Amino acid sequence: MEKSLLKLDKGTTCTSWSYSGERLASGSVDGTLAVFDSRDPASSSFACTSRTQVHGGSILKVVWIPPEYGDAVACVCEDGTFSLWEELAEDSPPIKWKLCDHFKSSSAKVLDVQFGVSPSSLKMVVASSNGYVKVYELMNPMELKNWQLQAEFQNVIDLVSPSSKALCSSASISWNPLRGDGQGSSFVLGFSSDSPQLTSSKVWEFDQAHQRWLPVAELALPDDRVDQVHGVAWAPNIGRPYEVIAVATEKGISIWHLSLNVEVDGRLSVEKVASLSGHEGEVWQMEWDMSGMTLVTTASDGSVKLWQSNLKGSWQEQATFVPT
Question: What's the pLDDT score for residue 244?
Answer without folding.
Answer: 96
